[in-house]
Design brief:
With about 850 residues, this protein is an alpha+beta fold. It has 26 helices and 21 strands.
Length: about 850
């Protein structure tokens, strides 16, 4: 220990005295770090789980996918020569039990080699080939428990799919590649691929996906082999993926949720940073006499600074370690929730990257919020320090310290940008955080100015409350900032949840159709229309043709190399549905360009969703090239449309002008409203009996599934927002404790002068009530703006102000403020007057 510099020896001596005076410091820092570490650890565990099971999730080393057509003999022969091959065929269909009840299913036909990797778990446990083989007059089918419950089936029952009758041979417990169907609409049914022709569902234009999975020989790298396939068949129109791209939709979903939760966690750390700064300020003010003594004995500014800098950073390291330890345990704590929501096994282990990132954010936040008070205390002259025991210093520190504090904040911002998956969103967050700090600090300054100006009130308790708001060392700014930031997040989350719930449970059911019917064949269109018209209670029929294909080029650049923004990446991730029309869809709003004439004849034109066009970086006059069944079609953008997807009406992201897609294999989709449950049942049965190949998607079922997913997401968001509010409450508690000596002094003097307990309590509650009310009002406005921007800009949804959500959040803030203020006041009132007066 003697070999250490003098400043470090003194720091170690103070550290050995315990952490009682800096418990708030540790709590605020640990809480913010834990929030970021927990979100990052859970995300890393899920992504690592995806990577560990990548081959099983994809079903092989390489997957080649085709829509609406099977691989040609030449393509299939070439694939078989490359390694062990397995093929599956997937489609949506309607399943019917012997009682006539119907429901939508995801039908999957598999060959004898399936699965190449991983294992299918069934009950009873037997080989999949034997379970799906034809026996007892019918092919076997393995069904998920959801279908068993929905259609009241047991093993051995009959199940009609299309024109084929299957025998339920097993309950499907697990598929290795099920994660790729995370957003499926119905329960899964596994059947033998050889049985699919008997269903009569495989018709031209039907939405059927064919997947060919390869297990490559040792020594062949899947990413390089992917390039070989694409180079051998450049115009095949298929989608090729290697195992490192397994379940891209699920991975993107995890990363997006992580992005938003991480920003909320950073807000908690920002609020905690305010508490860290307050704790350091209070600790240093308690040490002013010691610092003055050091400087009188010859200690330089640098020595004092290094002493307390080492002490603070040592405590920060402890807080960071506590926070990262708590965050590292998050995957184990969230294991049950994750298993019920996501079809992937989390990798329950230590993931160092998010933990190191959280620790770095914690240390940078500590530097940004503590260098200022530390430098200010270390820079004051000895005589000023002795006076500061009575009146704390309030002058600015030297510019070098200010620059170091700003540099820590800038490095923290750059770290956030570097690790962000959505740079624009991270920039908005950083700008919003800076704006919020300025706004709440400005509001606190305004409140203090008003309290000073109108402080000469006749009522003594009101005068005391106003004086406490602007007295030297008043925590008004810190309380307004910390409580305001926490409440802003709470209000924003409450408004977003309220609007999403309104969309799903109130607004959408009124406007949305009852059914989406898909795979209507062109020769069935007239009969389908007549059937709907003849069904009592069915109305509002809308129908349009649909062709499946994928985007090959954007403005002449191949889709995989085009600079597509993250919010539009889904449009190039796989095949899409395209339509054609002579006139705009009902309610279409043209954002740019003009619609073509109804009798248009000429080169291919296309209308694109405005948001997708911006995400692609294209506009009117640019070109988009599509690949439809191996044929590439280049179309010029004639206009862009603003689409209200929330209405669930008939619309397409891409609509062609007449004269381009009419000859391509196609089906029709339709939407229909049903006036009652009886009408729903009659329409479903009528369509099912007349057109077994047509699948019906009940909108209510889809909305219920979406609501379940959103509710699970909302739980995580609420927990993270609660951490932010808890951090604000800790800062408020710290401010109350920091001013406890002054409050005890005020309470004792007031009691000696004859003030009653009720009057003293009233004065202090007025002080905290004013603070809480101002913070709540500003946070309500700011939280509303944040909620509006998230819903309208990021989610592209409608926004309706929900006063109940804002009011409940405001009441929570006021309750927390008054409760903590009352707790501190009550302690002050319990002190005896004699010891205090003797000390004075």
């Amino acid at each position: 220990m003697a070999a250490l510099p003098l400043s470090l020896r003194f720091a170690w001596r103070e550290l050995r005295g315990g952490v009682r005076g800096v418990r708030l410091f540790l709590a605020c820092l640990a809480l913010g770090v834990a929030a970021i570490a927990a979100v990052g650890s859970v995300s890393a565990a899920l992504v690592a789980g995806l990577a560990a099971d990548a081959r099983a999730l994809l079903g092989g080393d390489i997957e080649v996918s085709l829509v609406q057509r099977q691989a040609s003999l030449e393509e299939l022969t070439w694939l078989e020569r490359q390694g062990r091959l397995s093929s599956t065929t997937e489609m949506r269909a309607m399943a019917q039990n012997p009682a006539g009840e119907r429901t939508l299913i995801e039908l999957k036909g598999v060959d004898e080699a399936y699965p190449l990797m991983g294992a299918v778990e069934t009950e009873p446990n037997s080989s999949l080939a034997s379970l799906l083989a034809a026996a007892d007059g019918g092919w076997g089918a393995a069904i998920e428990p959801a279908l068993q419950s929905r259609l009241h089936l047991t093993v051995g029952d009959r199940l009609k799919i299309g024109e084929a009758v299957y025998r339920v041979s097993a309950i499907l417990r697990r598929e290795p590649d099920r994660a790729t169907g995370f957003f499926d609409f119905g329960p899964q049914v596994l059947v033998a691929a050889a049985s699919l022709p008997s269903t009569e569902l495989m018709r031209p234009g039907s939405l059927i996906r064919h997947h060919y999975r390869l297990e490559l020989p040792a020594g062949i790298a899947p990413p390089a082999f992917k390039a070989t396939i694409e180079g051998t068949f450049p115009t095949a129109g298929w989608r090729v993926r290697s195992y490192d791209e397994a379940a891209p939709g699920l991975r993107q979903f995890i990363e997006r949720i992580t992005q938003y939760l991480s920003l909320v966690g950073l807000t908690a750390l920002l609020v905690g940073g305010v508490g860290v700064g307050n704790a350091v300020k209070s600790h240093l003010e308690a040490k002013l006499a010691t610092i003055a003594t050091f400087k009188c004995l010859g200690a330089t500014v640098g020595t004092v600074f290094r002493l307390y800098f080492a002490l603070i950073m040592g405590m920060a390291l402890v807080g960071v370690l506590i926070g990262t330890a708590l965050g590292a345990l998050a995957p184990w704590a969230a294991r049950g929730l994750l298993a019920s929501v996501l079809p992937v096994n989390a990798d329950l282990g230590l993931h160092w990257e998010p933990l190191l990132l959280a620790g770095a954010c914690g240390l940078l936040t500590t530097l940004a919020f503590t260098l200022w008070p530390l430098a200010r205390a270390a820079s004051v002259m000895p005589a000023g320090l002795f006076r500061a025991v009575v009146s704390p210093p309030d002058r600015l520190p030297r510019w070098g310290y200010l620059a170091a504090s700003a540099a820590a904040a800038i490095v923290l911002a750059l770290l956030i940008l570097w690790r962000s998956l959505d740079r624009p969103l991270a920039l908005y967050f950083i700008a919003g955080a800076i704006g919020a700090v300025i706004l709440f600090r400005g509001a606190a300054w305004g409140l203090m100015t008003l309290a000073r100006r109108f402080g000469h009130q006749r009522r003594p308790m009101l005068r005391l409350a106003l004086a406490n708001l602007h007295r030297p060392g008043a925590p008004t700014g810190a309380i307004a900032l910390s409580l305001g930031l926490g409440l802003t997040v709470l209000v924003a989350v409450a408004l977003i949840e309220a609007n999403l719930a309104r969309q799903i449970h109130e607004r959408l059911p009124e406007r949305a159709p009852t059914f989406f019917f898909i795979d209507i064949q062109p020769d069935q269109v007239a009969a389908f229309d007549r059937l709907v018209a003849a069904t009592p209670g069915a109305s509002g029929l809308q129908r349009t043709p649909m062709v499946r294909g994928r985007i090959a080029r954007i403005a002449g650049i191949t889709a995989d190399r085009a600079p597509v923004k993250p919010n539009a990446s889904w449009a190039v991730a796989g095949d899409r549905g395209f339509s054609y029309a002579a006139t705009p869809p009902p309610g279409a709003k043209i954002a740019e360009g003009t619609w073509w004439p109804p009798d248009y004849q000429g080169p291919p034109l296309i209308s694109v969703d405005d948001g997708i066009a911006k995400g692609f970086g294209v506009g009117v006059g640019d070109t988009i090239t599509l690949n439809i069944l191996g044929r590439e079609i280049e179309a010029r953008i004639a206009n862009t449309r603003s689409i209200d997807w929330g209405s669930l009406g008939m619309n397409f992201t891409f609509i062609f002008a007449p004269g381009t897609l009419e000859g391509a294999p196609q089906t029709h989709i339709a939407t229909v409203h049903a006036a009652s449950e009886t009408a729903e049942t009659e329409l479903l049965n009528a369509v099912g009996d007349r057109f077994p190949n047509v699948s019906a998607i009940r909108v209510k079922d889809a909305l219920d599934a979406a609501a379940r997913i959103l509710e699970s997401i909302a739980i995580a968001i609420r927990l993270t927002a609660a951490v932010t509010l808890l951090a604000g409450a800790l800062v408020l508690a710290g401010a109350v404790m920091a001013g406890q000596h002054a409050r005890i002094h005020d309470a004792v003097v007031l009691k000696v002068l004859g003030a009653r307990r009720r009057e003293v309590v009233t004065a202090f509650l007025l002080e905290y009530g004013c603070l809480g009310l101002i913070a709540a009002l500003i946070a309500s406005v700011l939280g509303t703006v944040v909620g509006y921007l998230v819903l309208t800009r990021l989610m592209r949804s409608d926004f309706v102000f929900a006063p109940n959500a804002v009011a409940s959040s405001t009441l929570v803030a006021l309750a927390i403020t008054l409760a903590l203020g009352l707790a501190g006041t009550w302690h002050a009132l319990g002190q005896k007057a004699a010891p205090m007066l003797r000390n004075d």
